[in-house]
Amino acid sequence: MRLRHIEVFHAVYSSGSMTQAAKILHVSQPSVSKVLAHAELQLGFSLFDRVKGKLAPTPEAERLYKHVQTLFEDLGRVKRVASNLQEGAEGRIRVASTPAMGMNMLPALVGEYMRKNSHVVFEMETMHQGELIGALEESRIDLALAFDPASSPSITETKIAQGDLVLITPKGYLQGKPTPIRLMDLVDIPFIRLNNRSPLGRLLEAHIDGVNVELSIIAITETYHLAGALVAQGVGVAIVDQITAKYFKNADIEIIKLDPSLTYNISMLQLNGVPLSRVCQKFKTHLTELISNEFNPTTTLK
């Protein structure tokens, strides 16, 4: 089958009529009938039967359509990639991060860069970890920031800093408890837990299971910022990343180190084999330097 045959077959099958297929393809109905007949001649079997005045796919057409649909999905993705590549022109930077970094850190870093590079246009998004890889593969974004991302053969990961999970509590909530604090010291304390769908949630879950501690869990959330907001309401404590903790440091919240410490990587992601534009490369260097300085080994919690 030629590509035009496939296109007409898909339109007729999807719409259920020659007339609707012609409208979808912006051609005449006789043209659709002619192309479909030529396709059937080449194939050596019928694709549709007329049943009570309506078109009904033959069993062969049913099997063929499954493969044609996959092809159309791939073609749709090619169109999206082409459109995204067209939009990702010089002078435009498309960057995404996980929500924890997108709430405070990324806007601050972008803002500092924009003050020195006013000609650059930014497109910014927050996504969960799994969405970042797809956005890079479809060229919707140029760069992504993530905590301990899963490896992917299509993605280049550059580890740029290492952070610590920390405990955040309402001020005075744990008066008399030792610092740094151990999980066993939190047994009777209302605890807001990260779920295991995020990398840091899985890191924390493994640590809790490893020390065999039963915590008094009052809420479970995937969003670190939501965990921090609950702590700010005074209902319990949570273990979150340093970026989230810093965001809430002025909300009558204390930040306490853990014993032992739990570390995670902050990584920059980009698509393999696709060179960054000069402006994106410059911004990548800016991000790497500032984040590295923020999380260098001498950084202390305040």
How would you sum up this structure in a few lines?
The chain is an alpha/beta fold and 302 residues long. It has three domains: 85 residues, Arc Repressor Mutant, subunit A (Orthogonal Bundle), CATH 1.10.10.10; 99 residues, D-Maltodextrin-Binding Protein, domain 2, CATH 3.40.190; 102 residues, 3-Layer(aba) Sandwich (D-Maltodextrin-Binding Protein, domain 2).
**CATH top level label of the largest domain:** Alpha Beta
Rg on CA atoms, Å: 27 Å
CATH-scheme architecture of the largest domain: 3-Layer(aba) Sandwich
Q: Tally the helices: what do you get? A: 11
Largest sheet: 9 strands, mixed
Portion in beta strands: 15-25%
Helix content: 40-55%
Question: Runs with pLDDT <50, length 5+?
Answer: 297-302
Description:
With 302 residues, the protein is an alpha/beta fold. The protein has three domains: 3-87, Winged helix-like DNA-binding domain superfamily/Winged helix DNA-binding domain (Arc Repressor Mutant, subunit A), CATH 1.10.10; 92-160 and 265-294, Periplasmic binding protein-like II (D-Maltodextrin-Binding Protein, domain 2, 3-Layer(aba) Sandwich); 163-264, D-Maltodextrin-Binding Protein, domain 2, CATH 3.40.190. Helices cover 45% and strands 23% of the residues. It is built from eleven helices and eleven strands. The chain has helices at 3-15, 18-25, 29-43, 59-87, 99-102, 105-116, 129-137, 199-211, 224-232, 242-247, 278-294, and strands at 48-51, 54-57, 92-97, 121-126, 143-147, 155-170, 190-194, 216-221, 237-241, 253-256, 263-271. The strands form two sheets. Strands 3, 4, 5, 6, 7, 8, 9, 10 and 11 form a nine-stranded mixed beta sheet that branches. A hairpin with a 2-residue loop joins strand 1 (48-51) and strand 2 (54-57). Helix 1 (3-15) packs across helix 4 and helix 2 packs across helix 3. Residues 297-302 have low confidence and may be disordered.
